[in-house]
Every structure is written in C-alpha cells, then in structure tokens.
Amino acid sequence: MIPKDNEIKKPFLEVISDGKSYHMKEVIEKLASYYKLTREEREEEVKSGGKKFDYRVWFARLDLLLACLIEVPQRGFVRITQRGLEVLKENPPIIDYKYLTKFEEYRQYLEKLKQASKERKQNAENLDLETELETLPPEEAIDKYAQKLETALKAELLKGS
Hints:
- With about 160 residues, this protein is mainly alpha-helical.
- The chain folds into two domains: about 5-100, Winged helix-like DNA-binding domain superfamily/Winged helix DNA-binding domain (Arc Repressor Mutant, subunit A), CATH 1.10.10.10; about 115-160.
- About 70% of the residues lie in helices and about 5% in strands.
- The protein contains eight helices and three strands.
- It has helices at about 5-15, 25-35, 40-45, 50-65, 80-90, 95-100, 105-135, 140-160, and strands at about 20-25, 70, 75-80.
- It has a three-stranded antiparallel β-sheet.
- A hairpin with a 5-residue loop joins strand 2 (about 70) and strand 3.
- The longest helix has about 30 residues, at about 105-135.
- The N and C termini lie far apart (about 50 Å).
- About 15% of the residues are buried.
C-alpha cells in the first residue's frame, strides 16, 4: 500500500539523517525500499501521468522544506537541517501538518496560502459583480455597486472593533 505524504515525512528525514546531500531520486528509492513497495505500487500513476509514490515523496519534501527541516543545497538535492535532526531526536510518532505548525515558517506559509485563497475568492466575486453590472441599466448598476461597497465597509469596521 502506498503511504500518504504525512506518513512519509518522518522516514524521509530518517533516510537522510546522516547530514549528507541526497538526490531526490535516491531518496525516493530509499523510501520505496523502506516501505517495501511492489513494482506495481512503484509504477502506479496519478491521472496526470506521474508516479503516485514519487508525487507523495515530493509533496512531503515540500512540507519539510517549508518547515526548515531540510534544505536544498543544489537543484534536485536535499539535506537535513539542524532543526530536522532535533525533530528526529524528539521522535514524534508522526510528522503531519498539525506537527509542522509548531514551526513559524510553516505557519507563515499556511497564512500566505489562506490569504491567496481569500484574494482568489474576492477576485472571482469582483468578476461576477462586474459581469452583473454590465448587464444592468446604469442606475441599477450604481445602486448594486454602492450596496457592495457598504457591505464591505461594514465588514471592515466590525473587524476593526
């Protein structure tokens, strides 16, 4: 059975715990051996065509990097950081998203994602409003836009108090 990316993070750190730089292909192979994946499991693909296990390892890599548990000394390579070694010494049962939130850098990343999501939603709402305003007579469009501004202003004022 192919492990989830949350299940991969701790073994990922363990296989590079000697402090050397490893190419990601080597990390993927070591983790495949660690999990005793069959040839079929190794070859299983996602809909976009990539290998499922490889993708999960890369996603685990991203989270470890964002939490500063690993670093990228050069393209395609990873190396454990001092923080990563400290996490291994702590020996948590699993390194999942909840665990990673103890690190400020990871929380900042999540906050940026949250903000970007809000902005995308706002942009979509603005586009919907613009499309709607184009179809209304001018007087109605002005009233509609004024309502939108008033609602936004009220929300902003309530948030500030």
